[in-house]
Design a protein that fits this description.
By secondary structure, the chain is mainly β. The protein contains no helices and 11 strands.
Length: 119
């Protein structure tokens, strides 16, 4: 059973910083992609940053957020600087990983962590 567990969310003032972590656990053969998504109230879930063969960021976070991975720990991080009230959302970790040799990779989501930025 593969699980993705996020941590690091919370309440911060505008201009502040937070660092989110997401650790994948269970039987893992390989991880090809780890990403962060977010969903604000009344809005669709959107991609924030992805780390795979290439690294991509949403235009709204470029220059402020940095995604990184520790492959030895099956962990992905999201360093968020210069936070704005518009960044308030539930942040979800997502991974494409292979849990068994010979089986195709699957898609996995974390449970989400709340980030609230006050003005």
């Amino acid at each position: 059973q593969v699980q993705l567990v996020e941590s690091g969310g919370g309440l911060v003032q505008a201009g502040g910083s937070l660092r989110l972590s997401c650790a994948a656990s269970g039987t893992i053969v390989s991880i090809s992609v780890m990403s962060w998504y977010r969903q604000a109230p009344g809005k669709q879930r959107e991609l924030v940053a992805t780390s795979g063969e290439i690294t991509n960021y949403a235009d709204s976070v470029k220059g402020r957020f940095t995604i990184s991975r520790d492959n030895a720990k099956n962990t992905v991080y999201l360093q968020m600087n210069s936070l704005e009230p518009e960044d308030t959302a539930v942040y979800y970790c997502y991974a494409i990983l292979r849990s068994r040799i010979g089986r195709p990779p699957g898609n996995y989501w974390g449970q989400g962590t709340q980030v609230t930025v006050s003005s």
